[in-house]
Structure formats: structure tokens, C-alpha cells
């Protein structure tokens, strides 16, 4: 039985390694595209400066959604027999550069900042920007959050688990209802302690799980708070 578990762990590690290789290749392609796009933009500035000024005066941002403060989400949570809450409805994925008001706390999806929060086993001891954290969830990360009511021993144990798990992160979050929460894109569960069996189950299911909108996308090179 131990052999089967080791094989499963090895297979998951191999899958994550392959995703990282694909991400590095995609990053190289993206850098080339960005350079090419920059050349086009510079040429546009030279030729159409007046048009550019006019469009800027309209106050339009091609990155932001129509309602920059809105999450773009619709729907609600439904709770399964295992206690995992799943968002039933739309989770928007537009990049915005403003603060976002999410309908759930902590958020499990919605419009978010173009830059993700580093989630390569990162432990944050201060609150992090929700908009960046949501982008990390889009990349397949699990986000562990806790309030001041959470026992320090549990927080320390969960931080240790995060440190050893790529595509995960932990931070304090006072607006949530339970002392300890685990979140992934579209999914969330409250756990009683770091020893709760749901902790390992949630990590195994949702770290780079089937719910991930952008599997293999990087969890490094983003924002570090």
C-alpha cells in the first residue's frame, strides 16, 4: 500500500515538473511576443500620438472590466457531504488593476490582478492582496488562511505543510467565518485543526487539480508580500 502511495506521489511530482517545463517554454514565447508587441506600440505612438492622447482622455483601461470594483462573479456556494463548499455559478477571470469586492471571504475566484502572488510553498505572516491571491488560485494553488482565533500550533503545522508543497501558500485573513480555511479555485473548506483529515484530502485533490483554469502556470516570479 505504501508502494502505491509513493507511486502516486511520484506521478504527481512528475506531472508538476512537466507543467513547470511547459511554463518555462511558454514564458520564453511570451517574452518574444511582448518584445514584438512593444515594437508595434512604439510605432503606434510615433504615428498616432494624437489618437492615443484622445483615447487616454476617455479614461478607458483595456485591462479592467466594465465594473472595475466588481468581481464579475455570480452564483453561490453549495456544500457537499464532505464539507467542501463549491461555487455554483460564474467565476470571472478578467485582469483588473483596481481593488475588487468579492462575494466570498476569502475569495475563490473572480476578476483579479494581472500579477499572481508567489505560491511556491510561500508562508506570509501578514495579510496579502486578495486580487493577487486569486490569480494564484487560477494557477492551481491552494490558499490556507487563518484568523487570530486559530491555535498557533495549528498555524505552524499548516505553514510547515505549505512550505513542503509547491502550488500552495498561507496567510492571515480576519474576514473569514472559521479560524482555519483552505481555498482553491471554486472550492473552499473549513478544517478543525491541522490534523483534520480534510487537510491532506484537500491538498491532494486541489493542488494543480482538475478545477485549475491554467494548469502548469507559474507560482514564482509574481508578487512577494
Key words describing this protein structure:
single chain, 225 residues, alpha/beta, Glutaredoxin, 2 domains, seven-stranded mixed beta sheet, globular
Walkthrough of the structure:
- With 225 residues, this protein is an alpha/beta fold.
- It has 2 domains: 2-57; 74-206, Glutaredoxin.
- The protein is built from 5 helices and 7 strands; from the N terminus they run ααβββαβαβββα.
- It has a 7-stranded mixed β-sheet.
- The longest helix is centred in the N-terminal third of the chain and has 46 residues, at 2-47.
- Keywords: Membrane, Transmembrane, Transmembrane helix.
- The chain crosses the membrane at residues 32-53.
- Residues 1-10 have a biased composition (Polar residues).
- Pfam families: DUF3105.
- Overall number of strands: 7
> Main sheet?
7 strands, mixed
- Low-confidence stretches at least 5 residues in length (pLDDT < 50)? 33-68
Instruction: Determine the mean pLDDT.
Output: 83
Instruction: Write the H/E string, N to C.
Output: HHEEEHEHEEEH
| N- to C-terminal distance | 41 Å
Q: Output the number of helix runs.
A: 5
Rg, alpha carbons: 20 Å
CATH architecture of the largest domain: 3-Layer(aba) Sandwich
